[in-house]
Design brief:
Layout: H1 5-13, E1 17-20, E2 27-31, H2 35-45, E3 54-56, H3 60-66, H4 71-80, E4 85-90, E5 107-111, H5 116-125, E6 129-130, H6 145-152, E7 156-159, E8 172-177, E9 180-185, H7 191-198, E10 224-225, E11 235-240, E12 250-252, H8 257-273, E13 278-281, H9 290-300
Parallel strand pairs: 1-7, 3-5, 4-8, 10-13, 11-12, 11-13
Antiparallel strand pairs: 1-2, 2-6, 3-6, 4-5, 8-9
The structure holds threonylcarbamoyladenylate and magnesium ion.
């Protein structure tokens, strides 16, 4: 059963949780200003409370009402919103984005999603909506309605079916604080696209500012082995490129990074359901979107990022 964006907006106003489709992954949403509803998100996901949530808004104007945007943040917002980019800025409005949503930080993470149904929910609700990925904490993010319903659907009063997520990986998270721009989480908007706009990024030590980057994350139940040339006995091989492994399990038979990103979490889940000895994954080039794919794979395999 799926609800309309208007019904989802009504559920948010009632203080309930929703399943929200976005172009990256499905989110578990709540009114960002309602601490009780936000607490229910942490409980449903089993998420540690020190890990802050992203506030989703309908446009850059609504974003500027909750976060303080300097010139670099404005340039990034203009170039990539609506879309798979999250900006971390100093917080301006601690009422509409409650302390728990920010894990007590004096900053706020903001995203304007592109998915038409997400936009319809945000427009109808009229305020910021926190939405972490709809998986239970530590598991792969859901990229289909069925997977989202499976993970945290039990906690949602309304669930909007927006089909399969086009991007398939979570948004790029960039902080813009004290005039410094740093990449906290690679995603569909690539490092080089950001640097083309705002110059060289601050060093990766800055990445420690993102409290959610736990080492073991995005992990299926089966152990994940990366940079694999072939499957060992009992393993499923997620291939990349022509002639690598079984085409049914290929991230992208033609070696396309966008296709691989869109398929990654779904195939990890499907492989896991066959209860393999392990999941092996072909090497993925580090260019462009490859940085984000390799980041998720290293974490799924349990390496510190
Ligand atoms: O694509 C996405 O971003 C999806 C969809 C649903 O929008 N959402 C998502 O949310 O991936 P979540 O909660 O799974 O990841 C949010 C990331 C975490 O790594 C968190 O630590 C970081 O953003 N984050 C949130 N607020 C922050 C802040 N104030 N400072 C630094 N990092 C922050
Ligand atoms: Mg997540």
């Amino acid at each position: 059963m799926s609800q309309t964006p208007d019904q989802a907006a009504q559920a948010l106003a009632n203080g309930d949780l929703i399943l929200l489709p976005t172009e990256t992954v499905y989110g578990l949403g709540a009114d960002a200003g309602n601490a009780q509803a936000v607490a229910a998100i942490f409980a449903a996901k089993g998420r540690p409370r020190f890990n802050p949530l992203i506030s989703h808004v309908v446009d850059a104007k609504a974003a500027a009402a909750i976060g303080a945007f300097g010139p670099a943040a404005c340039a990034l917002a203009e170039a990539f919103w609506p879309g798979p980019l999250t900006l971390v800025t100093p917080v301006r409005d601690t009422t509409r984005v409650c302390d728990l949503a920010r894990a007590g930080l004096d900053t706020v993470a903001i995203r304007v999603p592109a998915h038409p149904m997400a936009r319809a929910v945000l427009a109808a609700f009229g305020g910021p909506v926190v939405a972490p990925s709809a998986n239970r904490s530590g598991r792969p993010s859901p990229t289909t309605f069925a997977d989202a319903a499976d993970e945290t659907g039990f906690a949602a009063a309304a669930a909007v079916d927006g089909g399969s997520c086009q991007v398939g990986l979570e948004s790029t998270v960039v902080s813009v604080l004290d005039g410094r721009v740093a990449l906290l989480r690679p995603g569909a908007v690539t490092r080089s696209e950001i640097e083309a706009l705002v110059g060289a990024l601050a060093d990766s030590g800055e990445g420690h500012r993102s409290p959610g980057r736990l080492a073991l994350h995005y992990a299926p139940d089966a152990p994940v082995r990366i940079e694999a040339d072939e499957a060992k006995s009992g393993e499923v091989l997620l291939g990349f490129g022509r002639g690598v492994g079984d085409p049914r399990w290929s991230l992208s038979p033609c070696g396309d990074l966008r296709e691989a990103a869109a398929n990654l979490f779904r195939l990890l889940r499907e492989a896991d359901r066959t209860h393999p000895v392990g999941i092996a994954v072909s090497p993925i080039p580090m260019t462009g979107l490859g940085e984000a794919i390799n980041d998720r794979l290293r974490r799924a395999a349990g390496f510190v990022g």
